[in-house]
Amino acid sequence: MVDWEARWHDALYAPGGFFARGEKPARHFRTSPLVGPELAEALLVLLAGVDAALGRPERLDFVDMGAGGGELAADVRASATGDLARRLRVTAVDVGPARTLPGVAWVREPPAVVTGLLVGHEWLDAVPCPVVVGPSDDPWLRTWWPLGDGDRAEVGAPRDAAWADAVGRVRGAALAVDYGHLLADRAAGRYRAGTLAGYRDGRRVEPVFDGSCDITAHVALDACAAAAGGDWVLVSQRDALGALGITPTGPEVPGGDPMAWLEATARDGRVAELRATGGLGDFGWLLHATAGVRTADLLPPLPGWRP
Ligand SMILES: C[S@@+](CC[C@H](N)C(=O)[O-])C[C@H]1O[C@@H](n2cnc3c(N)ncnc32)[C@H](O)[C@@H]1O
């Protein structure tokens, strides 16, 4: 029998594997941190809420889990201001080769204790899983992805465990941002062929387990939420960014500074991309609050995520 999880793991993370050899996600696919600094700006608003709820600790962490090229960590470091910036410690965590970024520590394992905000941005979709053709008596599938004859599915248990471990390290808040699916849609047969996919050089390709491409699958974010437990919310990136103040500014009054108009227009374009229906705006934001912080301290009530 093929051990899909082991083959997937080796293709990405064994010596010479796709991420292990240091392939930069930016070369192969577009993620929200690559669009511009606006995601980091939103996360700094979230971090400020965590900071206030924790009583402004002397050292405040921002941890970028599965940092890839480190763009998000670098933007958070560069965009932070004032007293928060003085107390801020930014850490990028990745199993790939270390990158040198000003003001960012680069490590292979997340810190044992994170006081502040941990973000796994498109991290969980790169955590390898077993791939199964159903029906199956796997307990995770029985609970989270009932299969019919010939249906294919990725068993999300390794993602659940990875996320529960990450959240368990955090005093403050932990946020997973990813594409994914929900039980109701899985059970209704919307993903009968599974979601395994490959990406190389900006294109979707056949997922081949030879290290030549990224291999990814949608994340069962509802299962991750249940595994980590506690106080959590699952909302869309579109709604979360709006709630954190990342909204279009609209055209400037005629007669204003043309360079300011140009910059505002470019920013509006980036915000539209981050919030697009059928695109990045449909990503799920799974936010857990811990150690006395409440999700209600960090985000207003928003509609539940519908991928
Ligand atoms: C899809 S890329 C996302 C990169 C970046 N966060 C972004 O959104 O542009 C996933 C990254 O997670 C890293 N990764 C996967 N499992 C990891 C683990 N257990 N610990 C640290 N990094 C991990 C991979 O090496 C890869 O760089």
From TrEMBL:
Q: Which GO terms describe its biological process?
A: methylation
Q: Does the keyword Manganese apply?
A: no
Kindly provide the name given to this protein in its UniProt entry.
Answer: SAM-dependent MidA family methyltransferase
The source's superkingdom equals Bacteria
Which keywords does this Swiss-Prot/TrEMBL entry list? Methyltransferase, Transferase
SUPFAM superfamilies per the record? S-adenosyl-L-methionine-dependent methyltransferases
Quote one Gene Ontology molecular function term.
methyltransferase activity
Question: Which Gene3D superfamilies is this protein grouped with?
Answer: 3.40.50.12710
